[in-house]
Amino acid sequence: MKVRGITLGCKVNAYETEFILSEFKKKGYTITNNESDIYIINTCSVTNTSDSKSRKVINRIVRENPEAIIVVMGCMIEAHKDYENAGVSLIIGNKDKSKILTLVEEYIKNKEKKKILYQDFDASFEDMFLENLENHTRAFVKIQDGCENFCSYCIIPYTRGRQRSKKKELVIEEVKKLVANGYKEVVLTGIHTGHYGSDIDTTFPSLLEELVKIKGLERLRISSIEITELNDDFLEVLKKYPIIVSHMHIPLQAGSNTILKLMNRKYLTDYFENKIKVIRSIRPDISITTDIIVGFPYETEELFQETLDFASKIKFAKIHVFPFSVRAGTKAEEMSHQVPDDVKKERVNRLIALSNKLETEYLNKFLNQKVEVLIEENKDGVSIGHTGNYLKVLIDGTVKPNQIVEVLIKECYNNTLKGTIYEEK
């Protein structure tokens, strides 16, 4: 039988889907991106748009594949526990994803539809272990799940549950296996990655200290980390080990202290700025990217201007811009002074324009510079890859994927760098 995985949302979801497909593959199922007998849909609920997209994908798959076994799981289900769809065979939330193969084979035998949800998550991490990822040159490793920050706009603590971590020895073993299978770059991912270890009597920096020693690992990347988690121990590890790449995604969400307090974020702008200064004193050319929410309740033009000014001052390499959308069940749902959609749209466009300007400025720093690129694919006679600081680079000619090559950057266009293989003179 053929199995297709469809992932919506974050890298944690992508990792989970990869694990599920690998389990099916071990049992002799054929993995496909085309018409299939079994569909695994891993949903997202980070915004209202994500909810809507998840529902549309489910409806389309049900409509186009009436005879298929369709499994729907993930955050959209947790956020909408009353969700029903007559065409779906199995519905689960964010627990028991590691048991999908067993649940599907039970369904094949008895044709009994199931909906499995829990009132609460238990405190243990649901172990998943990957040795290979289909069609990827960088490997993702999920080390953490859950979040207890309870930002006033966010539904994720309710859909993912409490903070929980993968055992350190299992993380190390998984990374070793991936490196042994040829992966040069590993990305550590989680819902609240930097909070790793708080529930199992260890710390994120101590995990990094172990991983950087793995022979054959050339790049270690962190998918996202909160500014409050960049403590002295972490900064010391960043200083000591260049294997940790010079790219950090650090969500800001707002550059106004008034809005940060309303969001229930755990820092103010001075703290954020000072921490960025320390990071850049360690890695001067580091790429720092961020998320910003536009149009949060009570955001006046003056407060939005504070965000624009602060983002410009920090000089992010790229800003991921999200218009605020009300999430049922969050504190922000109860807030007055909601910002009109047309105002949000206009502010989103202004912040995107700033992001494009800052990104171009950052990229131009690398003109006529030598960079190391991990080749990921070849397309139409061009090799495509990324630097350690996650800059996309195009190279004329075919270079074998999963190699790290030195490239001399010659030009920058459309927020992409182009270069040639560097040759010593």
Molecular structure report:
- The protein has helices at residues 11-26, 48-64, 75-79, 100-110, 156-160, 168-180, 204-211, 232-240, 257-263, 269-282, 301-314, 341-364, and strands at 2-7, 30-31, 38-43, 69-74, 90-92, 114-116, 138-142, 144-145, 164-165, 185-189, 219-222, 247-249, 287-294, 318-323, 370-379, 382-387, 392-396, 404-413, 416-421.
- It has 425 residues and is an alpha/beta fold.
- It folds into four domains: 2-116, Methylthiotransferase, N-terminal domain (Rossmann fold, 3-Layer(aba) Sandwich), CATH 3.40.50.12160; 125-245, Transcription Regulator spoIIAA (2-Layer Sandwich); 250-365, 2-Layer Sandwich (Transcription Regulator spoIIAA), CATH 3.30.750; 370-421, Beta Barrel (OB fold (Dihydrolipoamide Acetyltransferase, E2P)), CATH 2.40.50.140.
- The strands form five sheets. A six-stranded parallel β-sheet has the order 2-1-3-4-5-6, sandwiched between helices. The chain has a five-stranded mixed barrel with strand order 15-16-17-19-18. It has a three-stranded parallel β-sheet with strand order 7-10-11, with helices on both faces.
- Helix 11 (301-314) packs parallel to helix 12.
- The longest helix has 24 residues, at 341-364.
- The termini are far apart.
User: CA-to-CA gap between the ends?
Assistant: 56 Å
Overall geometry comes to globular
Query: In total, how many domains does the architecture comprise?
Result: 4
Flag low-confidence runs: none
Strand order of the largest sheet: 2-1-3-4-5-6
